[in-house]
Design goal:
The chain is α+β, with helices and mostly antiparallel strands. It is built from six helices and six strands; from the N terminus they run αββαββαααββα. The chain has one domain (4-139): CBS-domain, CATH 3.10.580.10. Strand 3 (42-46) and strand 4 form a beta hairpin.
């Protein structure tokens, strides 16, 4: 098993096909459904070229629900882009994993979208696979 100090984000990140990804014009309700299916607390919003345009997290949804003064049905019918964090913290695939973990700790987040140099979404770094890897290294 590879030492965690030598791992890169791309070695642990969830591949794009395991990330909940939506177009900017998807209904906000669809974001909730995608989070439920993926069992992750995040949805990445990308344009037609795959460029990351924002994220929505379960915490964002809770905060929006508390501050919005409109019926749920209207809220759920909004385009998801209206409720995204438009410039989220991201990480590159070749960043050392431990640097990414430190960034996650600094920003108090469990997920970091992984983007290439052009801003295209290529995966998602989620805390649970990192913890699983480190626990397995301790047991092995």
């Amino acid at each position: 098993m590879q030492d965690a100090r030598n791992l890169r984000v791309k070695d642990v990140a969830l591949p794009l096909d395991r990330c909940p990804v939506l177009a900017p014009t998807a209904f906000f309700k669809t974001a909730l459904e995608a989070m439920g299916r993926s069992r992750l607390g995040i949805v990445c919003v990308v344009d037609a070229e795959g460029i990351l345009r924002g994220i929505v997290t379960d915490g964002d949804i809770r905060r929006q629900l508390l501050k919005m003064q409109k019926p749920f049905s209207a809220f759920f019918g909004d385009d998801v882009i209206e409720h995204t964090i438009p410039h989220p913290t991201t990480v590159g695939p070749d960043v050392p994993l431990l640097d990414a973990v430190n960034l996650m700790e600094e920003k108090l987040v469990w997920d970091l979208p992984v983007v290439d140099a052009g801003g295209k979404l290529v995966g998602l770094l989620h805390l649970h696979p990192i913890v699983r890897l480190l626990v397995n290294q301790q047991d092995g």
